[in-house]
Amino acid sequence: MSEWLEKQLPKLVLAPSFVAILIFVYGFIGWTAWVSFTKSKLLPRYDIVGLIQYDRLFVSPRWDVAFSNLFIFGFLFIVISMLLGLLLAILLDQKIRTEGIIRTIYLYPMALSLIVTGTAWKWILNPGLGLEAMLRSWGWESFSFNWLVDPNMAIYTVVIAGVWQASGFVMALFLAGLRSVDDEIIKAAQVDGIPTWRIYLSIILPSMAAIFLSAFIVLAHLSIKSFDLVVALTGGGPGYATDLPATYMYTMAFSRGDIGQAASSAMIMMAVVFAIVVPYLYSELRARND
Amino acid sequence: MTELNSKYADSGYIQKLILRSLLFLLLGIFAVYYLMPLFIMVTTSLKSLEEIRTGSLIDLPREVTFAAWKTAWSGACTGIQCEGLRPFFWNSVLLAVPAVIISTLIGALNGYVIAQWRFKGANLIFSLMLFGCFIPFQVVLLPMARVLGIINLAGSISGLVFVHVIYGIGFTTLFFRNYYVSIPVELVKAAKIDGANFFRIFISIFLPLSLPIIVVTVIWQFTQIWNDFLFGVSFSEAGTQPVTVALNNIVNSTTGVKEYNVDMAAAIIAALPTLLVYVVAGKYFIRGLTAGSVKG
Q: What are the chain B neighbours of A210 within 8 Å (beta carbons)?
C-alpha cells in the first residue's frame, strides 16, 4: 500500500494544481463563453439564444471606439517600445563602463504599478499645471499640449506612458540577445572592414529573430491586458474616448450590470490574445520536444 | 598592416572621440527621460499646494514640507473614508506575503514533479498551465466573482490571496520547472537507490540547490501581486482594498481641492516596496522578467 502511494505521489502532488487550472482557467473560460451566448443582464442566465450579445457588441459605438483604440494603442506601443528598446540596447552595447547604472535607470519603471505610472503621467500631462504650463512659463506662450483632455488625442497619452514603462524592459531583452551573438562572426566581419552599422543590420539583428518575436509577444500581451494604465491616466475618458476592450469589459461587468456584454467582450479579448499567443506557444513547445 | 594603422590612427581617434561623446550624450538624454517622472513626483510631493500653483513642474521646492506625505499616509480620502493609504498598505502586505509564499511553494513542488518525476501526461499538464499564464484575466472575472461569493470569500483579503495563488501557479511552476530541468535525473535515481523518498529528495537535495530560483520567483510574484489592480478592484470592498486601488481612489477622489502633492506622495508610497526590491535585487528582477518572456 505505502509502496503504491510512494509511486503515485508525484501525480498526487501535481493533481490539486491541475484540477485548479482545469476549473479556474478552462472551466471559467467555458462559463464565460457559455454566458456570452445568452441574454444575461444583471444576473447570468444559462439558456443559449445565439449571437445576440456579439451583435449588440458590434453595433455599439463604445465598443467600436474601444476595439479600434486597442489597435491604435497596441500598434504604436509595440512599434515605439521595440524601436526605442533596440536603440537603447545597441547604445548600451558599446562597452560602456557605467552600463550597470544606466541599465538600472532605464528599467526601473517596469517595477512600478501601472497605477503609479498613470498617476505620475496624469500630473505631468495636466494641461493647467504640468508640461504645458512649464513651457509657457519659459516664454513659449503659444505652446499647447492638452492631449489628456482632447478626445481625439487622449489615447496617445496612454501610448506615451506605456512606452515609458515598457521600453526599458525591451532594452533588457535585446541587450541579452546582442550579447548572445557569436563574437567570432563579428570579429571576422570587422577584420573584413565591414562598417559597424552593416554588421548590426546584416549579421546581428537577423540572428535575433527569436528575441524580436518574444518581445512582440510580451508587448502585445501587455497591450491587450492594459487596464490599470487607462484607469489611472484617463479613466477611459474624456467620455469614452480612451476605452479599451479591458475597460469596456470591466464597465459592463461591474458598473452597468450587463453580464452578457461583459462576457462577449471578454471572449473577443481572449480570441485576440489566442490569435497571437497560440502559434507562438505551439512552436515553442514543439521546438522543445524535438 | 602597421602602416595602415598609423595612417588612419589620427583621424580615427578624433572620429572615435566624437562618436563616444555623442553616445554618452544620447545615453544621458534617455536617462533624464526615464528619471524625470520620478524626479517630478518626489519634488511635487515636497511642495505646498501654493507653490505648485505658482511654480513650474520641474522647479525644486523652495520650501520642503512633508505635510503631503503625512496626509497621504494617514489622512487622504479614498472615498467616504479619510484614513490615508496606511490601512490599505497593510492590506497589500497581508495579501502579498501569504500569496507569494503559497504560490512559490506550490510552484516549487510542481516544477520538481514535472522536471524530475516525469510521467505520461505531465507535459500536457505543463502546457495547459503555460496557456493559463497568457489568458486575459477579464475572461475569468465574472465566474470568479460568483465562486468567491459561493465559498464565502467575496470582498475579503483571503479571497484575494486565493485568486493570486490560483493565477500565480502557472508562472511559479514555469520558473521552477525550467530550473530543475537542468539538474540531471540520475541524481534522483541515485537517491532513490539509497532509500530516500519523494519528499526527502526534494527537501534534502533540491531545496538547497534552489536559492537563486526561489529569489527570482518570490520577487516576480511579489511585484505582480503588489502591483495588481484588476483583481484588487474587482474582488475587494471598502475595507479590504489593496494599496493600488486606494491610490487610484485618492487620485480620482472628487471631494475638496485637488491636492497634487498628496497624490504624488501617495503614488511614491505605493511604489516604494517594489522599487526597493528592484534596487536591492535588480539582477533577480531582470532574470524573472526575461524568464517570464523567453520560455524554455
A: 294
Query: How far is the C-alpha of B257 from the C-alpha of B49, rounded, in Å?
Result: 10
Q: Total domain count for chain B?
A: 2
Assess whether B172 and B273 both reside in one domain.
Answer: yes
Q: How confident is the model at residue B103 (pLDDT cuts 50, 70, 90)?
A: very high
Q: Do B184 and B289 fall into the same domain? A: yes
Distance CA B113, CA A168 (A): 35
> What single letter denotes the amino acid at residue B136?
P
Chain B contacts of A246, Cβ < 8 Å?
Answer: 136, 138
For residue range A144-170, list pLDDT tens digits in order. Answer: 788 888 888 999 999 999 999 999 989
In angstroms, the CA B283 to CA A29 distance is 36
The pTM of this model reads 0.89
The secondary element (H helix, E strand) that includes residue A85 is helix A61-92
CATH topology of domain A61-289: MetI-like fold (1.10.3720)
ipTM over 0.90: no
Give the gap in angstroms from C-alpha B57 to the nearest C-alpha of chain A: 6
What is the tens place of the pLDDT at every residue in B20-48?
Answer: 889 999 999 999 999 999 999 999 999 88
Instruction: Tell me the residue range of the domain where B51 lies.
Output: 2-65
Q: How many CB atoms lie within 10 A of CB B94?
A: 16
* Count of A-B CB contacts under 8 Å: 257
Q: Is residue B72 domain-resident?
A: no
Distance from CA of B236 to the nearest CA of A (A): 12
CB contact under 8 A, B229 and A106: no
Closest C-alpha to A262, from A60, A71, A73? A60
Mutate to test the interface with A, among B138, B147, B171, B290 (most CBs of A within 10 A): B138
* Residue B80 in domain: no
Residue B195, chain A, CB below 8 Å: the answer is: no
Which residue is it, cell 462576457?
A263
- Residue spans of the domains in chain A: they are 61-289
* B199 in a structural domain: yes
Q: Identify the residue among A9, A97, A108, A115 best suited for mutation to test binding to B, counting B beta carbons within 10 A and taking the highest.
A: A115
